[in-house]
Amino acid sequence: MSILSAIILLGILIFVHELGHFLFAKLSKVKVLKFSLGFGPRLIGKRIGETEYLISALPLGGYVKMLGEEPGEELSPKEKKRAFSEQSVLKRAFIVFAGPLFNILLAYVVFTGILASGLPINIPHVERMLPIIDKVEEGYPAEKAGLRAGDKVIKINNKEISTWFDMVEIVSQNPGRELLFTIKRGEETLQISIIPEAVQEKDMDGNPITIGRIGVRKLGSGMFETIEASSFWSTPIKGAVATCKMGLFIIDSIEMLITGKVSFKNLGGPITILKESGRAAEAGFLPYLFFMALLSVNLGILNLLPIPILDGGHLLLFGIEAMKGAPLREKTVIIINRVGYLLLILLMALALYNDFFRLFSRR
């Protein structure tokens, strides 16, 4: 189920992204040679008109190949009229921008549909999700052990803690068992042993359960902002608000990764997508749609980063070309693209490493 749900999810996201490039290329009268879901060897394909439509072997992406897109491509005078490279900077920018735009529009459609069904959209606050203690309650194990407000929990029993929920999960599952907390306090790194207090609560079905609690909490309005539609007619506006807020959440997450507030160990790759899409599918159709919308916004924004090879990298080069009044030298573009490939490979390798580390550390 996980594999099938992930294939369907990624297939939709890739198709929508490439459809944006394809449609804007067609609107700009640019000749599209290939429309492929996936990379690598062709599995199946069919030529319709001047375009070959393909499903390729590697499902982690896709591409739209346009006439005149490759550096140094030789074109006849007749072909030049419909070549990507011969279009104005503005037209080329629109074609490139359309891919991320369509991913963001997909998220908007999904969020609007969820709101129209009467369900809310919960947007996380990145800062609020960090495992930083806002308050230590009197008389509880955390205070007795010496934890303070402002402490950041890094590890519990050598397990990396990335979010507040990671800490809560471990503590709640270990009532009466000693846990070794590694915390960051200013410039110091400390280790503190805490035994969570056993507390009686009830699960979602009303059955009594025993959980662990140490007496730390977050202050303020919570970790999520809830967006609801008061009426059917307000759903399009609220859907746009939810899409913008989710986009800002992703931008904040990227900024915190770059500044070091969040570790690069939180990056996830295909195994994480596989696992989470399976969980979302098991939870129901609407949670699966929500996860799809979240990934779609993510894909749209990440593709707009000014990294060579990504759409944002192309847009950056078009901007430089517009300011210069002439295209960059072909050799320069090739070097920049190679650097982009290297960065992308390194990021993918890091994401895969994180995936495998999480997978085997739990066994």
Descriptive account of the structure:
- The chain has 363 residues and is α+β, with helices and mostly antiparallel strands.
- The chain folds into 2 domains: 87-122 and 230-363, no CATH class; 128-217, Pdz3 Domain (Roll).
- It is built from 11 helices and 12 strands.
- A 4-stranded antiparallel beta sheet has the order 6-5-7-8. Strands 1-2 form a two-stranded antiparallel ribbon. Strands 3-12 form a two-stranded antiparallel ribbon.
- β9 and β10 form a beta hairpin.
Compose a concise summary of this entry:
The protein is α+β, with helices and mostly antiparallel strands and 363 residues long. It has 11 helices and 12 strands.
Helix content: 40-55%
Total strands: the figure is 12
From N to C, what is the helix and strand string? HEEHHEHEHEEHEEEEEEHHHHH
The main pleated sheet reads as:
4 strands, antiparallel
Question: What is the element layout, followed by pairings?
Answer:
Blueprint: H1 2-27, E1 32-48, E2 51-66, H2 77-80, H3 89-116, E3 121-124, H4 126-129, E4 135-136, H5 141-145, E5 152-156, E6 159-160, H6 164-172, E7 179-185, E8 188-194, E9 197-202, E10 208-213, E11 216-217, E12 224-227, H7 235-259, H8 270-283, H9 285-303, H10 311-324, H11 330-361
Helix pairs in contact: 1-3, 1-8, 1-9, 3-7, 3-9, 3-10, 7-9, 8-9
